[in-house]
Amino acid sequence: MPKIVTEREKDLVREAMFTKGIELIRKKGVRRITVEDITNATHIGKGSFYSYYNSKEELLYSIIKKSESRMFERVEVVLSERISLKERLVKALKEVYLAADSIVLYVSPSDIELLLRKLPAEAADQEAIKSNDYFSRTLSLCGIDESRCEMDVLAYLMNALHFIGSTDMSFGERGRDKALDILVHSIADYMTGGAKQ
After folding, report:
1. Could you tell me the pLDDT band of residue 151, with boundaries at 50, 70 and 90?
2. Rounded to whole angstroms, how far apart are CA atoms 112 and 64?
3. Which of 58, 92, 183, 191 could form a disulfide with 53 if both were Cys (CB 3.0 to 4.6 A apart)?
4. Model confidence, pTM
5. Which long-range contacts (CB under 8 A, 24 or more apart) does 74-79 make?
6. Residue closest to 21 by CA, chosen among 55, 67, 54
């Protein structure tokens, strides 16, 4: 007789898949994770995996979106603090890029594109809407006028931050951390210049 699994047990398995999925993304990257990696990490059978998700791409995309949502909630809290705009931006950028559970540096735009190609078309539409919404809400919370902060410049600065944070170079951890700190402060300075006066 098959084991009856309660909703609570299903929720615990989903949360384990999320937590272990974060660890696997940080360790292996999106492209190298297998269903077997996930089932081994969460101690479930391969058949059980498919009772939760149709594919590993669906799970990984779900993990990325859930992580993004949780991160944005924390960023909203930081941006509502009563400290200077620059301090809020620095804290928010560090929350996004440098928090212990952040996967931003481990997921590239091409990883998202790969996952979206293997998911239903609606996922790509939702992705574009959600990304624009997060960005607009962040600028609004900061009082930043989009017309005074060039988005293409900001995109290049964010890509530089991503590159430094995600590239494994032999220059040492201290140098990487210092470079990230300088870049975070520079981005905050640039964004602060776009704030409404």
Report:
1. confident
2. 9
3. 58
4. 0.80
5. 74/99, 75/138, 76/137, 76/141, 79/138, 79/141, 79/142
6. 67
What six digits make up the tokens of 162? 């991503």
For residues 172 and 179, the answer to whether their CB atoms sit within 8 Å is no
Cα–chain center distance at 159: 14
**Helix or strand (DSSP H, E) at 142:** helix 121-142
The total number of residues shown for the chain amounts to 197
Q: What is the pLDDT of residues 130-147, one digit of tens each?
A: 766 666 777 777 777 767
**Section 92-121 average pLDDT:** 87
Closest CA to 164 of 184, 150, 148: 184
Confidence of residue 38 (pLDDT cuts 50, 70, 90): very high
Helices (H), 30-172: 35-42, 46-52, 56-79, 85-98, 109-117, 121-142, 151-166
Residue 27: which H helix or E strand, with range?
Answer: helix 7-28
Position of tokens 């060039």?
150
